[in-house]
Amino acid sequence: MENRPIIALDFPDSSAVKKFLTGFPQEEKLFVKVGMELFYQAGPQVVTALKAAGHDVFLDLKLHDIPNTVMRAMRNLARLGVNLTNVHAAGGQEMMEAALQGLSDGANGSAVPKLFAVTQLTSTSETKMQEEQQIYTSLAESVLNYAQLAEKAGLAGVVCSALEASTIHEATSNQFLCLTPGIRPTGSAVGDQKRAVTPQKARELGANYIVVGRPITQAADPYASYQIIKKEWSQSHE
Ligand code: C5P
Questions:
Q1: Most exposed among 41, 80, 160, 180, judged by the fewest C-beta atoms under 10 Å?
Q2: Which amino acid residue places its CA nearest to atom 10 of ligand 1?
Q3: For residues 27 and 55, what is the distance between their CA atoms, to the nearest angstrom?
Q4: Which residues contact 204 (CB under 8 A, 6 or more apart)?
Q5: Model confidence over 210-236: pLDDT tens digits?
Q6: 211 lines ligand 1 (CB under 6 A)
Q7: Could you give the 3-state DSSP secondary structure of residue 62?
Q8: Which residues on adjacent β-strands are paired with residue 8?
Q9: 50: Cβ–Cβ under 8 A, 6 or more apart, which residues?
């Protein structure tokens, strides 16, 4: 299992990323997350540069479109060499299968990027889901439904809160993975994450990957903070 926390590179442009990475030893190979803010400003080059430096990349663009468009987009993302990427499960089983097809076509014999699904966004409340999406179940049931749909489509797992991980693992097979943001090391500021858990707690709850942003990117010493979080996460792996 992945013993490095995935660092969310929530920066406005590549020069901010470069500056941040100078705080890490060159030989330290990281797993980083590039999201919409950075990707739409810096373009695909930011991914190729990170890959060229030896880092693994989770490209967090949450695709959601008709199957054919998603397949073609995923083909291009796989060509960039991303290690992990995602779609909205709300796009449906056929769209998720098309995404996988695109990734395997684009990988062209290299390792196929892992595909994760976003279920209900954590910004969606049960009331909003029922009123706006007209899904008349509980939020938890909708999350489980989407997780099972993603598994049926052949995806590697879902992005979810660590607090949802155990019910998702119960409802899916052993191989189905939970990738969880909302992580805060013991004693750090929670910020806008409402139900944050520590790296150790995330592991105990069944997270397979953790994504950590501000506790590392905004730390006075990002590398020191990364090492503490990595230790807390990977020790609890043993
Ligand atoms: O700074 P922080 O650790 O809160 O960053 C978490 C990262 O994970 C951010 O990039 C955020 O957009 C992402 N994320 C999240 N909650 C979700 C899905 C993604 O915090 N439900």
A1: 41
A2: 8
A3: 10
A4: 236
A5: 999 999 999 999 999 999 999 999 985
A6: yes
A7: strand
A8: 33
A9: 17, 32, 34, 57
| Structural domains present in the chain | 6-237 (3.20.20.70)
Please state the φ and ψ torsions of residue 207, each to the nearest 5 degrees.
Answer: -70, 140
- Report the SS3 class of residue 221: coil
Token pair belonging to 225? 């903070």
- For residue 132, give the amino acid letter: E
Residue 233: both structure tokens together: 């996460």
Q: Which of 119, 82, 128 is nearest to 102 (CA)?
A: 82
- Ligand 1 centre to CA of 55 (Å) is 20
The answer to whether the CB of 90 falls within 8 A of the CB of 70 is: no
pLDDT in tens, 44-77: 999 999 999 999 999 999 999 999 999 999 999 9
User: For residue 82, what is the DSSP state?
Assistant: -
Q: What is the DSSP letter of 132?
A: I
